[in-house]
Amino acid sequence: MSERGTRYPGPIARAGVHPHSLIAQGFAEDAALAALLDRYPAELFDINLYDYDDEGQVSLRTGARGRLDGGQLLEAIQQGRLWVNLRNVETGWPELWAAAMAEFRQVEAAYPGLKAVKNGGQLILSSPKARVPYHFDAAGVVLFHLRGRKRIFVYPGDEAHLAERDMEQVVSRQTTEELPYRLAFEGDAQIIDLEPGQALTWPLYAPHRVENLDRFCVSLSMDFQTWPSRLRNGALYTNAVLRSRGGAPRPTDTMGQGELTLRWAASLGLKRMGALKNRIAHFERQFEPEVGVTDGAGTLKV
Ligand SMILES: [Fe+2]
């Protein structure tokens, strides 16, 4: 298929797989991961447990870092049904980050016109049966897959799958990154099975979800901003403010560069003024990882 998978301009028109060499450098081996989990700051962990009903609607429980040592935590992830995210890899594991940035430059070079101005990353360790719900990222993403197998579903970035009203809510932090999802979307997905040594990227903002294929998985999710993504995120933020004040802003995909730039500039002032309060609730922790219990989710020990 050659048609664009997004209504937004940009050099990445469809999801695409690229090779990388991060595994050969030993980053995804048990010993390295256990040592990393031991030293990683507790406040940089997100530990999630996702459940789905028959309609594919997600419910989320969040976990605390708990008191397991690195090796035990790794074992709990490998046996359980957990999704563990280590934020700020750029400072948390500089050696991996340096190697990943070198790989990123090669992916970037494969798309003429693609120019990242800011990169960040998170290392994701997830259980054999973990599934990540339908969402979008307000950034470009390169997912470097290091271990296990996972199936990525990438959906069209059109208004039906990714309404701008919902994007505004996410960009202005009025909600988490989850989008309304319907089973009927499944016929529209581009499906990619990722193997270790492969990296996947997709059109900016394209909605996606992930299913692990019965193996413990390790991936580095690198996000990046470009000038076009910054301008559009700013325009979406300004539109969110206008909408919250009763306005009916035009969708950003009908705006030219000039108008996007004006709305981005406006967003800087609006953010400084605190025009919209961050409404993302602080999640109440409901469990902590434990070895040998259902889902790897043990009782919270305060
Ligand atoms: Fe994502």
Chart the SSEs and their pairings.
Elements (H helix, E strand, L loop, with lengths): L15 E4 L10 H10 L5 E8 L5 E6 L6 H10 L3 E4 L2 H4 L1 H16 L6 E11 L4 E5 L4 E8 L2 E5 L9 H8 L18 E5 L3 E4 L6 E5 L4 E10 H18 L12 H17 L11 E5 L7 E2 L4
Parallel strand pairs: 3-13
Antiparallel strand pairs: 1-10, 2-3, 2-4, 4-5, 5-12, 6-11, 7-10, 7-12, 8-9, 8-11, 13-14
Helix pairs in contact: 1-2, 5-6, 6-7
Task: Give a structural overview.
It is a single chain. The chain has a single domain, classed as Jelly Rolls. It is an alpha+beta fold. Helix content is 27%, strand content 27%. The protein starts with 15 loop residues before the first strand and ends with a strand. It is globular. A 10-stranded mixed sheet has the order 1-10-7-12-5-4-2-3-13-14. It has a 4-stranded antiparallel sheet with strand order 6-11-8-9, with no helix packed on it. The longest helix has 18 residues. Bound molecules: fe (ii) ion. The site of fe (ii) ion has 4 residues, from loops.
Keywords for this entry:
single chain, 302 residues, alpha+beta, Jelly Rolls, 10-stranded mixed beta sheet, 4-stranded antiparallel beta sheet, 7 helices, 14 strands, globular, binds fe (ii) ion
